[in-house]
Structures are given as structure tokens and as C-alpha cells.
Amino acid sequence: MSKINFQEAIVYEIHPQSFYDSNNDGIGDLQGIIQKLDYLTMLGVNYLWLNPIYFSPQKDNGYDVADYKKINPLFGTMADFKKLISEAKKRNIYIMMDMIFNHCSIEHEWFQKVLVGNKDYEQRFFFLTGDKTIPPNNWQSKFGGSVWEYHDKLQKFYLHLFDKTQIDLNWRDEKLRQDIYEIINYWLQEGVQGLRFDVINLIGKPESFVDDLTGDGRKYYTDTPQVHTYLQEMGQKTYHMNNNIITVGELSSTSIEQAILYTKPESQELNMAFTFHHLKIDYLNNDKWALAAYEPAKLVTNIKEWQSLVQAEGGWLATFLNNHDQPRALSRFGDPQNYRFESAIALAAVVLLLRGTPYLYQGEEFGMENNNYQDINQLKDIESINYYYILQQKGYEMSAILKILSARSRDNARTPMQWSDEQFSGFSSHQPWINVNTNYLNVNWKKDYHNPQSIFKAYQFLIQLRKKNLAFSYGQIDFLDLNPVVLSFYRSYQSQKFLVIINLSNQEIMVDDKIIDFKIIYNNYQTLDKKIKPYQVVILDYLISKPFK
After folding, report:
1. Where would I find the beta strands (DSSP E) of 176-252?
2. Cβ distance 65 to 55 under 8 Å?
3. Is residue 212 classed as helix, strand or coil in its secondary structure?
4. Buried b (16+ CB within 10 A) or exposed e, 355-370
5. Which contiguous run of DSSP H or E holds residue 493?
6. How confident is the model at residue 222 (pLDDT cuts 50, 70, 90)?
7. What is the mean pLDDT of residues 230-253?
8. Helix 340-353 and helix 455-468: axis angle, to 10°?
9. Which stretch, 389-393, 425-429, 512-516, has highest mean pLDDT?
10. In the predicted model, is pLDDT for residue 409 greater than 50?
11. Is the dihedral of CA 483, 307, 201, 238 positive or negative?
């Protein structure tokens, strides 16, 4: 097999430094991924999305790229990468690379050429002059503070929507765009068959930078019309020349209408989009750093709205609840204390059975959870550290800050894979670059695999169900209103029709027993009746009624 249609892809995201350490230096690497390919084959995925493996100062875990064509020696060599491509392909697994072109590191040669006076390269960035003590406008960085940083040598401000070491790129510069397309084609020629574009909807910056009197500036640089023009050009110059490539764009603070526009086939932009509104339902007043209780009905409502509208207009979503930037979904939306297995499978069913391409994140397949941070020194994530100081300045008590960081920090997703209960969770024989979650003795793949209620084996089943029944890849989705906290839907395609019922709450819910009077394909409980149990998942073949009552 040389191609997998994007609708049939089942993508597994790997944070390389935290996946598996093959040379025992405390940092996961490419050889570590190669050594775990049989594990990934056993799970059943067919694409691996690698978080950045480029040369980088690692200020933001590799999303600050200093050389787009050089493998970071922390992870290995180009020979290791080529071996990963070939060994994965033998197993019908393909590689998706992270493409970070909203910004680059200030250590990248493009910026370094500006520092030595090359005027041509100045056009690749955004510079403004002014009083060094007064930023040019009031826009706020995604990581806190101003989006402007004054550079003493240049005597100018430069724009950075993220960390001050991540300088934003100016896509209006044609030479920059051509260099970006050449980088993409370089990796495609090396055998990459998937491209994930980081915050790609932010690349269309305005020509002037006015104050935002009602927000943090994002309305001026998010989803601007020129983004669509750039993506169409990029596709024509790169991935549209090869029909074996699948593409996904990360869309920051987007809308349903824009997600559709990026992904409907006639736009000729992207196959699918990551959107995040469903992961903000536990933000108090839409503030990431203010905690609100999980309300299952909000999650159900959000999913139904986005799924229905995107389907109606022919767009396509990436379905996910976990990634390298998000705290663990099981800790957020599940109940690991009382319904660990059941709630893990409920969340798996959401990702794997909705309309869209599923993206799993390392460790969710056996129920990894958030860490419990007791000290700021445990944190590595630059965003979390920045907000630690911001919350301090706002007058928060230390205990409250640590509670917020334990719930929200991106480091929750980046702790080492918990392979076993051995020292350092079987990830390495060396102290890892970031501490292992303290629960690894009880939560690890080896222990889960041998548990009668194995989360991993349930993931295996659901993945195979999806692969064998094209209704889950290509089928129409139609929602039922059984209860506000129950996500229930039909998936229909050709001669197939399935009913999926997912209770996303820890409450028992009454339903009409006629609804469930069909052949059971999967049930994460031993019984099924008109009381749907906490986090119960039921999959029914809706064309086969029960003749065996």
C-alpha cells in the first residue's frame, strides 16, 4: 500500500523527546520510535505525526526552529530518520511532519542575516521603530505579555505572537514563501506523506498594527483572507503535486465557517483542520488559566454543532481530545478515580467514531493522566512558567497557582511515556529531561495490557472496528437527542448503519429500550438496559435487530 486516504488515516502523535529513549541519555529519539514500531502496529495506527525534530534551541519544545532541514542531534541523524520512514512503511505506517511557518527561532539564519545588515532579509519579518519602553500596540502574546520585543542592536521592535525567541514570519515576502515551499518539497522527497501545519491560520498579518480596543489583538491577524491565498499557492507548489500526501492545519481561535473554508475540497487548501472550541468548555469565561468544572452537556453540544455544520458544507475535521499542547483528557473529562476504564473508553469512542480523521496522542491508549505539580521547578513549559509569574502578579496564592498549573500546563502531556513500572517508567535508564508522572507505578502500558479491563485492548478493538467498517471513515453522521449528556449518533454508509451511544457523564441516564434493541458490537459494561451507566459506550449494528431475546 502506498497511499491511505485522509478519511481512513488513524494518526498517532508522538512527542519524540518523551516517547522512548534508545541511547539512555534521558531524551527520547528517532531510534526509540523505530524500536516501538511493532507496538504502534499492534495498536493499529497508520500514520505517525512527529512533533518537531528539527535543529532548535528548544525554547518551546522544538516549535522554535533554527534549521528546517537539519535533524536535531538530540533525536538522531538523517540516517535515523530515513530508517524510520522505511521501517514504518514496511508496516503500512506513514510519517507526518510538523511544519512551523508562522514563526522561526531568532537563531535561524534568516534572522541572523538581518543582524549583520542584510536588508533583503528584513522583509521576512515585522519590524517597527519607536520608544523602546512603549510597545507599538497593545496586542498580547499567546504566552503572556506584549507581542513586541525591542532589539537593542537593531533599535527596532519585532513581532512575536508566541515566545520572544519565536519571531513571526512575513508571508508577504515572495522569497520567503518560495523558501518555505522548497523546505516542504525537501521533506516530501525524503518520503514524508503527511504535513501538519502549526497555527497556519495566523500567517496573514495586517499591513498596519492598530490597538485592539476590545481584545488581545487576535481579530486582526486570525483567518484573514490572504491566508487562503497563501495556502492555495502553497498547495499548488508542494503537496498538491503529489496525491499521496495528507494535510492538516492547526487553526487557532477559528470559526466553523473558516474551518469549512480551509477544508472543503473545492478550496484546494487542506484536507482537514484542528479546531479547539470543544477543549475550552472548562475555561471559566473563556480564560485558559481560570478553572471551571467539566460540564458534559457543553461538550456534547459543541461536538454536535461542529460536526453537523462541517458535514453540511463538505468540510473535514481532525477529531481529538489529547495533544502535546493539552492537559490529559482523562483527567479533564473522565473520572479516573471511579470510572477509569469506562471513561477512558468513552473518550476513545468520541475520537475514533465521529466523522473526521482521528488523532491519538501518546499514552492516551492506556490512560495516562495529568501530573500533580507541587513546585514551579518541576515545570519545563515556557507558557506555564510565564503564567506562573502572571498569576503571581495578579495576587494568586501559591497553592491556587499550582492547582491551576496542574490542571492546565502543557507539561501534563509531555511527561515520559509510562511503558512499565520500572525505574523512569521504562522510558529510559537515565533521569529523563522532564520528570515522570508520579503515578507511573499504577498507570503504565504493561500493567494495563494485563488488566482484564485493558484500555489499550479497547483502543485496539475500536481502531479495528473503524478500519473494517467504512461507515466510520466515510459515512454520514446523524445525531439523536437521547439526553444532554449523552453523545449519540448514527453512522451510515452504503449497506452499513451503526448506532453509537456515549454517556459522557458519571450519572446513570434513562433511555427508551427500543433504541438499544439491536445487535451489540461493543459495550464497555457487561450489561445493557434502559439505564445507560456512567461513561457507558454502546455500539449497535442498526441493521440487525435482536432475534435472540
Report:
1. 194-197, 246-250
2. yes
3. coil
4. bbbbbbbbbbbbbbbb
5. strand 486-493
6. very high
7. 97
8. 20
9. 425-429
10. yes
11. positive
Residue of 13, 21, 223, 250 marked catalytic: 250
For cell 492516551, what's the residue?
A: 364
548 confidence band (pLDDT: 50, 70, 90): very low
CA torsion, ordered 35, 40, 43, 49, to nearest 10 deg: 150
**pLDDT tens digit sequence for 28-84:** 999 999 999 999 999 999 999 999 999 999 999 999 999 999 999 999 999 999 999
- For the chain, what percent of residues have pLDDT higher than 90? 94
User: Residue 183: CB partners within 8 Å, gap ≥ 6?
Assistant: 68, 69
| 250 classed as catalytic | yes
pLDDT at residue number 234:
98
Q: Minimal CA–CA distance to 532: which of 313, 372, 346?
A: 346
Cα 282 from Cα 327, distance rounded (Å): 12
- Cα(315)–Cα(263) distance, rounded to whole angstroms? 5
| pLDDT band at 243; cut points 50, 70, 90 | confident
Pairing status of strand 509-510 against strand 531-532: antiparallel
**Amino acid letter, residue 156:** K
Structure-block grid coordinates of residue 349: 469512542
> What span, in angstroms and rounded, lies between the C-alpha atoms of 172 and 205?
9
Strand partners, 291: 283
Cell of 270: 487542506
Q: How long, in residues, is the chain?
A: 549
Q: CA angle 188-192-197, nearest 5°?
A: 85
pLDDT of 430 reads: 96
CA neighbor of 455 nearest in space, from 418, 498, 483: 418
CA distances from residue 408 to 276, 347, 384 in whole angstroms, order as listed: 14, 18, 8
Strand locations in 119-260 (E): 127-128, 148-151, 156-159, 166-168, 194-197, 246-250
| Secondary structure (DSSP) of 337-371 | TT-HHHHHHHHHHHHHHSSSEEEEETTGGGT----
Q: Sheet containing 518-523: give its strands across.
A: 476-483, 486-493, 496-503, 537-545, 518-523
Looking at the DSSP bridge assignments, the partners of residue 520 are 540
Grid-cell match 535508564, residue found = 429
Cα separation of 229 and 235, whole Å? 10
Q: Is 481 helix (H, G, I), strand (E, B) or coil?
A: strand
Strands 287-291 and 283-284: antiparallel
Grid cell digits, residue 134: 512603549
DSSP run (H or E) holding 538: strand 537-545
- Residues with Cβ < 8 Å from 435, sequence gap 6 or more? 371, 378, 415
Whole-number CA gyration radius for the chain: 23
Residue 474 burial class via C-beta count within 10 angstroms: exposed 0-12, middle 13-18, buried 19 and up? middle
